[in-house]
Give the backbone structure.
Amino acid sequence: MVGSTVACVCRRNFHRRTLLRLTCALIAYMVRRMKLRVKCVPLGERVRETRRERLLTQEDAAREIGVAPRTLQNWEAGSVTPRAKHQRKILDWLGDAA
């Protein structure tokens, strides 16, 4: 079902944003339809889990991400949300763990 819908949309030359919106809407519909429970983990918690899996200190992880150790501590504690410019760095770093 998903493949045929996406292929149909692509043939009609929709913009990428339109395709992305349709794909997100389709996924949201399927999640509601299947009554799935989606667990959203805060980004700081994901950073902490990944850091511990890699057996890194906060200082080492902060150096790899490219931020100050205190900034990383605040993210992990949940007291501060990462800025947009840092979210890209975090996601790249988390991608290495996957």
About this structure: The helical segments are 2-11, 16-34, 43-53, 58-65, 69-77, 84-97. Residues 65 and 89 are 6 Å apart (CA to CA). The chain has six helices and no strands. The mean pLDDT is 77.
